[in-house]
């Protein structure tokens, strides 16, 4: 009997983490397991997500049977809110403590908060290899410290590794500014890692092209592996739940961060109501966490509370198992994203699969525009301003009232091509063949 190849997957965020990249991590692990690999995941302990970022326990049930998950401690002093755990220095001189902590964090690896995880993660990866020899490591960022652990195993034991970027390390995806020059510690680390990597993955072509320009000798090993929607969470077509009230149901689903143009969206919504661009009695429901951490960001919560009188509703975090029901209760989906040509979205694929008209509230140069290029029911903004948002919301209302059978059929074909497993399949197949040889 042939021994299955063994994949080591290194990820800080893995179920029950609710961070955006967790869905990509979960799908990647399951794709390799489905292809016949033994898979071991090394990730942070559950308490990390339960205390600091928020958790979605329903995701753990979706990890493929047979996948071994090794959890190791992760300390996150910067996010600690229990003052009983504060040192005297932190309690009396917080700014001094913060500067010293940041300096300490980056001694081992140039990544604040995550740098100290390099040693325990590297040790855990080596222990897995000694117990069950690893054929391939896939490390996903961020944080980028996972790349360092994969590189260490490559140097010590010759295990090839894949770097899976979700965003970028030296590039601000929103502004396009370079955040670390090549000769900086970050620049030198990235150059070393990319040079040694077997493959490097990016979520969109603009990010791949930027990195290929920075590291031309590695360009042939760089691949676009888009995000996608998960067929085990959405059964197509997504049904529409009955709606007895007046107006239309607009909905946004995703983490609301300071990068999301929430103010422009809410102001545009108010204008659309006042100008009669959307039917009277229409509602705008937002679902998802407010900010990156477990404690909601106050300003975002206040903005939503202030808009409640205009039919704006905040549904709170939506567990992955409840996503289908959320989309079923919507007539029009609103995709509000930060600006920047390198910005992509995981939710846009679910929006396509849901089969609803989409109001795209983001910079037209955003990389998500390419995903929606063949969507027949998109209302786009020329710029992210309240007036443009109001106009697009009105266009979305018009689209919702006249969805043709042809548009529905085209959407179904597009959705099938954007399944997450289909985005991963070419790389999983290629790597499986390479390991077999």
UniProtKB/TrEMBL annotation:
Single GO molecular function: glycosyltransferase activity
Gene3D superfamilies documented for this protein: Glycogen Phosphorylase B
InterPro entries: Glycosyltransferase_grp1
Name of the protein in its database record: D-inositol 3-phosphate glycosyltransferase
Source species taxonomy: Bacteria, Bacillati, Actinomycetota, Actinomycetes, Micrococcales
């Amino acid at each position: 009997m042939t021994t299955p190849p063994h994949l080591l997957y290194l990820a800080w965020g893995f179920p029950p983490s609710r961070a955006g990249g967790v869905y990509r991590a979960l799908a990647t692990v399951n794709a390799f397991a489905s292809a016949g690999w033994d898979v071991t995941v090394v990730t942070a302990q559950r308490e990390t997500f339960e205390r600091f970022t928020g958790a979605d326990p329903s995701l753990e049930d979706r990890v493929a049977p047979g996948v071994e998950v090794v959890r190791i401690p992760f300390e996150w002093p910067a996010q600690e809110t229990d003052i009983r755990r504060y040192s005297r220095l932190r309690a009396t001189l917080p700014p001094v403590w913060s500067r010293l902590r940041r300096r300490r964090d980056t001694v081992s690896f140039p990544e604040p908060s995550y740098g100290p995880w390099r040693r325990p993660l590297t040790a855990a990866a080596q222990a897995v290899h000694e117990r069950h020899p690893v054929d391939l490591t896939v490390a996903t960022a961020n944080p980028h410290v996972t790349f360092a652990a994969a590189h260490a195993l490559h140097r010590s034991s010759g295990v090839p590794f894949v770097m899976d970027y979700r965003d970028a390390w030296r590039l601000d995806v929103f502004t396009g500014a370079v955040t670390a020059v090549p000769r900086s510690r970050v620049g030198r680390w990235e150059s070393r890692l990319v040079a040694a990597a077997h493959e490097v993955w990016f979520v969109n072509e603009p990010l791949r092209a930027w990195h290929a320009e920075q590291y031309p000798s590695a360009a042939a090993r760089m691949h676009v592996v888009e995000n996608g929607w998960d067929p085990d969470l959405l059964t197509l077509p997504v049904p529409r739940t009955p709606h007895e009230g007046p107006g239309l149901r607009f909905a946004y689903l995703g983490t609301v961060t300071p990068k999301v143009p929430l103010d422009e969206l809410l102001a545009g919504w108010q204008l659309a109501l006042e100008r009669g661009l959307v039917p009277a009695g229409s509602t705008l429901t937002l679902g998802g966490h407010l900010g990156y951490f477990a404690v909601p960001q106050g300003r975002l919560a206040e903005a939503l509370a202030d808009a409640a009188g205009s039919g704006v509703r905040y549904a709170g975090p939506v567990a992955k198992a409840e996503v289908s029901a959320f989309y079923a209760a919507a007539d029009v989906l609103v995709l509000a994203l930060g600006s920047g040509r390198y910005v992509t979205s995981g939710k846009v694929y679910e929006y396509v699969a849901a089969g609803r008209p989409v109001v795209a509230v983001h910079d037209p140069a955003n990389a998500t525009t390419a995903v929606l290029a063949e969507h027949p029911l998109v209302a786009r903004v020329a710029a992210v301003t309240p007036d443009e948002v109001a106009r697009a919301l009105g266009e979305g209302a018009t689209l919702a009232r006249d969805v043709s059978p042809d548009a529905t059929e085209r959407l179904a074909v597009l959705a099938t091509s954007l399944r997450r497993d289909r985005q991963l399949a070419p790389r999983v197949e290629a790597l499986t063949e390479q390991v077999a040889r």
